[in-house]
Design goal:
Blueprint: H1 16-21, H2 28-48, H3 63-76, H4 85-96
Helix pairs in contact: 2-3, 2-4, 3-4
């Protein structure tokens, strides 16, 4: 089930299918980098636009954990992979680290 994302209008340059293809092998580092970008972007929106947090990632979480969470979500939800990767990453992070 896809959780409703906050209404933020952003261009979607890459979808979940493309990220999922990179989850294993030599391109896996690009998924970790992308996942950090998703987390950082939402953090900026929360801090500076005063939006409600959609997920709450603990400070000790590593880039590899972000990648693993995103890839696990994409593996377990193939029906959503055609959607924008940033939104799918946000949903994956919310499932893993919901705000209290």
């Amino acid at each position: 089930m896809l959780t409703t994302l906050p209404s933020i209008s952003l261009a979607e340059f890459i979808d979940g299918n493309e990220i999922y293809k990179r989850c294993e092998g030599p391109n896996a580092v690009s998924v970790a980098t992308y996942a950090m970008g998703v987390a950082d972007t939402y953090d900026l929106l929360v801090r500076y636009e005063k939006t409600t947090p959609f997920f709450c990632i603990p400070l000790q979480v590593s880039a590899r954990q972000l990648k693993d969470v995103m890839c696990r979500y994409l593996r377990e939800h193939p029906e959503n992979r055609q959607q924008g990767a940033a939104g799918l990453g946000a949903v994956a992070f919310r499932e893993a680290w919901p705000c209290s």
